[in-house]
Amino acid sequence: MPRDGALAPTCPPPNCYDAEPIPEAARAEIERLLASGDLFRYTSENAPVSQLEAEFAAFMGTRYAVAVASCSAALFLSLKALDLPRGARVLVPAFTFAAVPSAIVHADCVPVLVEVGENFRVDLDDFRAKFDDSIAAVLISHMRGHTSDMDAIMELADAKGVPVIEDAAHSLGTVWDGKKIGTIGKIGCFSFQSYKLVNAGEGGVLVTDDPELAARAIIMSGAYEHNWKKHPGLQNSFVHWQNQLPLYNTRMQNLSAAVIRPQLAEVPRRVRDGLANHDYVAAKLNESPWLDVPPALGPETRAPDSLQFNLKGDWTDAEALRLQDEARARGVGVQVFGLSKDNARAFWNWQFLGELPELPKTRAMLMRACDTRLPARLTRPELDFIADAIVEAAAAVKG
Ligand SMILES: *Cc1c(COP(=O)(O)O)cnc(C)c1O
Questions:
Q1: What average pLDDT does the chain have?
Q2: Where are the alpha helices (DSSP H) in the chain?
Q3: Nearest C-alpha to atom 12 of ligand 1 is from which residue?
Q4: Right CATH number for 266-398 from 3.20.10.10, 3.40.50.10490, 3.90.1150.10, 3.30.460.10?
Q5: Which numbered atom of ligand 1 lies nearest the CA of 202?
Q6: Fold of domain 24-263
Q7: Which GO biological process categories is it annotated with (predicted)?
Q8: Active site residue ranges
Q9: Residue 17: pLDDT band by 50, 70, 90 thresholds?
């Protein structure tokens, strides 16, 4: 409900949940695949999954891309490809999605959670403090597309000779100092799950320039027997690894690739519009004395499809919960990460890890950080609707 004196909304609340339609070009290819039944990536030469891998590698400017079932599978295979010993300790930001520490556990490694600051990025003091000689790998999750300081992280990791994996699930199109996110560490992992920039329902891909890592990941993804021959440019590496590695069978199938391939051409438009939308709404929120959208880091050009903001000043939990209600009453979904029950992005809910560390900075951030969807397809009036609803909701609680 609008506050007294405010105009009643003249348009219905924008739908922030529906995806964009899949490009028309996917239909003919899907028809062809359905008619032939050729769905397995290794049946025919030059199958859609192989074509996607070639196109995605070209898009990212990497030597190799390996398409798999999900970003979580890509993260798991990345850790396995690094050949880390059982029980290896892996640094990972404590602000991420539960599937990320889960991939570390799945790879028989131990996640070491690092504090994340109010700006949603890795707290470098805690990162340095926890980066002792027991750390075998670093997995940087660019949560919600917020890029941590990759210069500082790479400098430290390189000095110690420790490999970095980038969880770029939500960072397709993000650029750091002229470099594409996902190409800065040894391996980058992306998601094609429906809430990411490219939507195939499910799917993932890893990129790397390292032929040994690529070959190992390909075999373990399920390139059994001599199916590796359908991946170009790796023959020497494959011969070495044949029959030496387990097959985890987490391949992508051709229908997914048929849905993804025509969307790659849409990425620049989605990135451009997503960033413009985000910055437009962020500027309006930052005019409120009660709201704060942290700025991007200097070297970072973001590719957001959602908006995160902090509740500024003193807010009680009850007030933060009321903000959610007030925004919902105005037609906009806002979630305080730490205040929605069982949120998979709140580290204290990752009870599968056993004893959880105290992470006061990350906890404080999660208790006041808000999440709202902001798809690239929204129009200016829809963005105004969302921004006004959130600003009015904050004023209704605090005004
Ligand atoms: C969505 C997401 C994942 C998981 O991706 P899936 O493809 O669903 O496995 C991992 N990390 C981040 C930051 C994500 O946003």
A1: 96
A2: 25-36, 48-60, 71-81, 99-106, 124-130, 150-160, 211-222, 235-241, 254-264, 267-286, 317-329, 360-368, 380-398
A3: 169
A4: 3.90.1150.10
A5: 7
A6: Aspartate Aminotransferase; domain 2 (3.40.640)
A7: polysaccharide biosynthetic process
A8: 196
A9: confident
